[in-house]
Design brief:
It is a single chain. This protein is mostly helical. Helices cover 61% and strands 10% of the residues. Strands 1-2 form a two-stranded antiparallel sheet.
Length: 41
């Protein structure tokens, strides 16, 4: 039974890490350009 408990704890930790990463990505801004500056985003 401890294996199942450990697996559930790992799944919860992974879910928390994913939520943290999603929150960081929401705050991230990216800029780029191509074609000698003709196209930029």
């Amino acid at each position: 039974m401890t294996d199942l408990n450990a697996l559930m704890q790992q799944a919860q930790q992974m879910q928390q890490r994913l939520q943290d990463a999603q929150a960081r990505m929401a705050d991230t801004t990216a800029e780029g350009s191509a074609g000698g500056g003709l196209v930029s985003i």
